Amino acid sequence: MRNSKFLSFVAIFFIVLFSWGGQEGPKEKPKSLVFTNARLIDGTGAPAYTNAVIVISEGQFKAVGKAGQVSVPEDAEIIDVAGKTVIPGLIDGHMHMTSFAPTRYDTSLSNDSIMSFRAVYRLNQLLLAGITTVRDCNSPSNVSIMAKKGFGEGLFVGSRPIVAGQGITSTGGHGSGNGFIADGEAEWRRGVREQLRRGADFVKLFPPYSRSEITGAIEEVHNHEKKVSVHSGMFEKQYDFIRWAIEAGADCVEHAYALPDDVIKMMAQKGTYCVPTVSVLLLIADNWSKKYPDRPPRKKHLESKEIFKKLRAAGVRMGVGTDPVEDNTLAYPGIYFDELEWFASNGYTPLETIKAATRTNAEICGVEEKLGTIEEGKIADLLVVDGDPLQDISILRTKIQIIVQEGKFIKR
């Protein structure tokens, strides 16, 4: 019996020994990732060029330039993308990660927990479409702020969230269903401080508000060296609301409606950005007409087409954003590409459109030093597209073959 056990032990020992001896140790992963033979659109607005080399290491772009001008590290994994185009990761300049089409479960499950799951789902859905960063312009409670924290800790794979936390509004104001309610200048200032204390990256303000409320809130945001964005229009005095906001120094206006000509001129003079979200405004107008054929069309939403053109003509810098909420969220992710194509069909060249969706959006988010372009030292977010979007921008819908976020493959 002892001999049998001993022989069994010896057999197992040699099996393990030969198993170890027959295998090499774990191979060290390449420290660098290099794309070669690329047609590069770097997002800066500079013309595209071919035969580009892009070196990525430690999640950043380490070198970018033409072949022969860039040193390729010996330890690199090299990917030849001849015949394809490399562009920066796309940015959605206006969305709400917790908003979903209503279901019969919403009444019993309308809470932070289910909204957190929805947020992760939406961020993952958009990342897989090539949108590597999103700007969330209002979500209930602190869900979006916690999603940003979860992303930073690597708890899920999804678009990088840049968030406003809760938008600030007055009692009964636009967004009051899930915004931070404030009445009076002191409360608006406290609302700003509270969102920034929680971890918001920027502040979103909704009408209606008094002149002192909006002026005090914008001053408070800028005192904290953050950016402030305002919803463009609501209620009968909407033109006064947006005029006061621009005069007070708002950094960005959301939506291309309720913007009179003098305000558009003022925005251009002050360098105020706009995220027009024309595609969703037209979708809302279309759904309204289908649902209520006997009622007047949504004039405010339909006017966005002309206001977009006025903003463009005035030189207002615009970013690409979506903004579907509730039923309209069923349009994701295609509505993002609707908006890209709207830009490219209404005064923007494809190159300018890609810049609006990358560098300009990064500026609106206040992260232009880190994101938005393929330049040395920036976070390595990029897309490899089969074809040339400067010839046909619609290929971004279906021809994105590789997605890289922070130097890691998401799709390959």
Write the layout of secondary structure elements.
Layout: H1 2-21, E1 32-40, E2 49-57, E3 60-66, E4 76-80, E5 85-88, E6 90-95, H2 112-127, E7 131-136, H3 143-152, E8 160-163, E9 168-169, E10 180-181, H4 185-198, E11 202-205, H5 211-223, E12 227-231, H6 238-248, E13 252-254, H7 261-270, E14 273-275, H8 278-291, H9 299-302, H10 304-314, H11 334-345, H12 350-365, E15 382-385, E16 400-405, E17 408-411
Helix pairs in contact: 2-3, 4-5, 5-6, 6-7, 11-12
Describe the structure.
With 412 residues, this protein is α/β, with parallel strands linked by helices. It folds into 2 domains: 32-88 and 374-411, Urease, subunit C, domain 1 (Roll), CATH 2.30.40.10; 90-365, TIM Barrel, CATH 3.20.20.140. Helices cover 37% and strands 20% of the residues. The chain contains 12 helices and 17 strands. The protein has helices spanning 2-21, 112-127, 143-152, 185-198, 211-223, 238-248, 261-270, 278-291, 299-302, 304-314, 334-345, 350-365; strands at 32-40, 49-57, 60-66, 76-80, 85-88, 90-95, 131-136, 160-163, 168-169, 180-181, 202-205, 227-231, 252-254, 273-275, 382-385, 400-405, 408-411. Strands 1, 2, 3, 4, 5, 15, 16 and 17 form an 8-stranded mixed beta sheet that branches. Strands 11-12-13-14 form a 4-stranded parallel beta sheet. The chain has a 3-stranded parallel beta sheet with strand order 6-7-8. The chain starts with a helix and ends with a strand.
